[in-house]
Design a protein that fits this description.
single chain, alpha/beta, Rossmann fold, two-stranded antiparallel ribbon
Length: 219
């Protein structure tokens, strides 16, 4: 019996916004992508700490996982595959395509696995995004998959990457791969924090706000 693919059973997108619909037009769009096992409420509080010029949208990942949601299975699990990452990114890109009209730019901010999603979206659509913010996360190893257009990323897209070297969640192999990738493909702002572990702190959000102002709002 034929089974449905993950993409076919993905639910309609669930999104929380920082502004009501009649106040979003003309504002640059900032899309928040949460981490494993969280939900769309997890990062929305950041909207109050970042520049108010953005229309901020926090999107729920499509796969139920415990009390929360995930974009794809954990990379160390037997269920993980690059195809599942690609199905999740297609889900996000399809949604972004429906709402990007009326916004002068789209910027991505992802935490943990959300950073993997944000960088995947950039790699698949190298010219679509003004900037990327990655917090305590990683970049997926896509090998030579042709849908990841890394060769088109020539180091001009600004990216902020913040992390704690003592982060107990993101493994060293992921950090090493991510380090190699960001050095080749984006205009990198990299900041290390102490005592943050696998999280986000006030100092980092201040730096993210400065980055967004300089690289998106003032362009």
């Amino acid at each position: 019996m034929e089974t449905m693919t993950d993409a076919e059973v993905f639910p309609a997108p669930v999104v929380l916004w920082s502004h009501p619909e009649d106040q979003r037009a003309g504002k640059p769009l900032l899309v928040l992508l949460h981490g494993y096992g969280a939900n769309e409420q997890d990062l929305l509080s950041l909207a109050d700490l970042l520049p108010g010029d953005f229309a901020v949208a926090s999107l729920r990942a499509p796969i139920a996982m415990g009390p929360g949601f995930t974009w794809f299975p954990l990379t160390a699990s037997i269920e993980y595959s690059l195809e599942r990452v690609k199905k999740a990114s297609a889900y996000v890109l399809e949604w972004i395509d429906t709402i990007r009209v009326g916004h002068p730019s789209v910027t991505l901010l992802g935490f943990s696995m959300g950073m993997a999603m944000a960088t995947t979206l950039l790699r698949q659509r190298p010219t679509d995004f003004a900037a990327v913010v990655g917090l305590s996360g990683f970049v997926v190893d896509a090998a030579d998959d042709p849908t990841f257009k890394d060769a088109e990323l020539d180091g001009t897209v600004p990216m902020f990457w913040g992390r704690d070297q003592q982060d107990p969640v993101i493994t060293q192999d992921k950090i090493e791969f991510t380090m190699g990738w960001v050095r080749k493909h984006v205009k990198l702002t990299k900041v290390l924090y102490t005592g943050m572990w696998h999280g986000i702190n006030q100092q980092e959000i201040g730096h993210v706000g400065e980055f967004l102002t300089h690289e998106v709002l003032n362009k």
